[in-house]
Write the structure tokens for this entry.
Amino acid sequence: MIVELISVGTEILLGNIVNTNTQYLAEKCALLGLSMYHQVTVGDNRERLSAALETALSRSDVVILTGGLGPTEDDLTKEVCAEVMGFELAEDAHTRERIEKYFKNSIYKDIPDNNWKQAMVPQGSTVLDNSNGTAPGLIMEKNGKTAILLPGPPNELKPLFTEQVFPYLQNRQPEVIRSQMIKICGYGESQVEDKLIDLINTQTNPTIATYAKTAEVHLRVTAKADNEEAAKNLLKPVVKEIKNRFENAVYTTKEEETLEMAVVRLLKKYELTVTTAESCTGGLIAGRLVNVPGASEVFREGFITYSNKAKRKYLDVSKGTLKKYGAVSEQTAKEMATGGVFATDADACIAVTGIAGPDAEGEKPVGLVYIACYMKDKVKVEEYHFKGNREKIREQSVVKALDFLRRSILSNYH
Amino acid sequence: MIVELISVGTEILLGNIVNTNTQYLAEKCALLGLSMYHQVTVGDNRERLSAALETALSRSDVVILTGGLGPTEDDLTKEVCAEVMGFELAEDAHTRERIEKYFKNSIYKDIPDNNWKQAMVPQGSTVLDNSNGTAPGLIMEKNGKTAILLPGPPNELKPLFTEQVFPYLQNRQPEVIRSQMIKICGYGESQVEDKLIDLINTQTNPTIATYAKTAEVHLRVTAKADNEEAAKNLLKPVVKEIKNRFENAVYTTKEEETLEMAVVRLLKKYELTVTTAESCTGGLIAGRLVNVPGASEVFREGFITYSNKAKRKYLDVSKGTLKKYGAVSEQTAKEMATGGVFATDADACIAVTGIAGPDAEGEKPVGLVYIACYMKDKVKVEEYHFKGNREKIREQSVVKALDFLRRSILSNYH
């Protein structure tokens, strides 16, 4: 089955946004074993969208269109698809009701007139409820061809795709495709590939694909077979071999589990609580922990100690240490982590101090970051030299801090 | 002049990488005032690349192709372009010499045989030296059409484009294009469009484009003219009119200024410091403030008080308030903000408490968020009902909190 992506939006053609939807959908389609030969972006323009859709329908079985489902006059995707594929638009009572409900719970109490446009759907299409916005997704089937329309905002598109479009496409695939995710922290992408080069080069079923993330590498092992059991049996030995090669650097094999979810899971498992003491990351580690629903069981309070004074006041970092070694030092990181545990009733503390830039501090270069972890009456510290701009350095610090906490739990309690 | 982008690479079709080159090139082309109507991605496949190029040359003046210039057999872009446009390939002595030099300075001393393929260039094309790799860029002109070939790795493509392709395209543009950004907080996208519908519908030069961001709307006003002054004169009255209509909701007109940068700028201007008291946002407001280089002047410390105990301990929220009104209440938010100022020497405190979900708390629904701001001996609170998942509710809370702080500074000090 051949699938093609059409992104609709002048903002993409103008370079105002990075088109991350395309990567997301392409990865999921690859996971489903679908063939993708074209990805196309056009603006909010009737003629060009119409032409792009006609071309796509002529060479592909399924066309996924993203964007252009908003309430404004510029938003044309639904109208153009209906015209090209020969559908009539009519108001959908169910969708109208959902829009009313959406605005009832919103800070904007008045529903702008143009929002009612979003309740119009092609008659005979399948409406996909959107829990995070007012534009529903749509599946339109005719003459053996399918158009799937999805809203552009990633936080609307992703859950809609995962929950409703993915199973729909999976049902239409004759072969069974199963894949297993393996998420790794602590190795770069080329290091991971080096360690797996023999497997990557010789394997055809299952295949191994690597995805580089900020300070993480994700591996996807994918097998095709006639039935689920056969696919799983193909996966099993390869996944086992990879896990053996990376040991504790594998933080999860669950598709949806993030690093912070893995950390919170381990803290809960060993009934531990953690606090955070952040300087250059300024609250982002705590912010990641609180991403996890139910984090309150393991995380109750955190410190953002950006100034030296705050490091002394809340974390009892000594004046002497700050003076002798500076705020960005192994010693300060250790005292921050220790102070965090003593200032609270937490079992552990993860502390970060570093230079995110843009300016270096004396002899200490931009990218120098110390991360300390206090756990079981011991404090350990790691020194990092990160590359990139301020944002990139802070992002990497957050990931490494979460992973340091994870590794500390494993080595102390596992 | 119409420009079209063709990205070449199976790794993009498989979703292994996000195509950031396209955004980069699209933004630069917009800045040059070039019209872009299509962006296309095809894999490393001779027939499909050939067809995509033919289509692009038929409807656009300039086609920029990225990727597929590497040394392997899969890399076909140069060969296909030469074939489609009728150029002969021949070895370029200058490029051969550069490749030799590149390997001399590299850790890999032996030059793989297939690298010599990269010294072959279409006869009559312009060779663009690549300082960061072995594949040169190429400009091929024939019959009024131009193909520009650039290597795929962003660290090779970007300097090559900025230093050599941008000036080349600028020279070919007869018109001058200038644009002005206007960033707005406090109105939804359709509300912004409603307020500007007369301008949007009647303006052709300058044009007004809206971009929805999380709890923000960005407007770009773009004018074309014969010279810079004329373009600026076209922009001025429209920008002034938009600013009048949105007043204080406009937080910046600077292209690169983010909301947190605007907040830090105002804090610095009035010599104010701020602290943060965060519950459901768990450090993300502080994290945003620390995004800004030099934030340490205005932000020294922050509290993450996720538990009730922490709210009492650090912010002196009273037991009675927590018991009577609950942690997510107007009263608790106010006491958090007040407590934050009294616990530190900051001039202001922004406090957030809310229910990010996934579960409601008793009668209080998911998405209910209170934001309080203490400033100049007064504390004010705002109640929000956000939609979306946990992540989206937290993101909106952060933006609204930063904007509340910004509005408070303006109303107290401006």
Q: What stands out?
A: The first strand of chain B starts at residue 2 and ends at 8. The mean pLDDT of chain B is 93. Residues 139 and 148 of chain B are 5 Å apart (CA to CA).
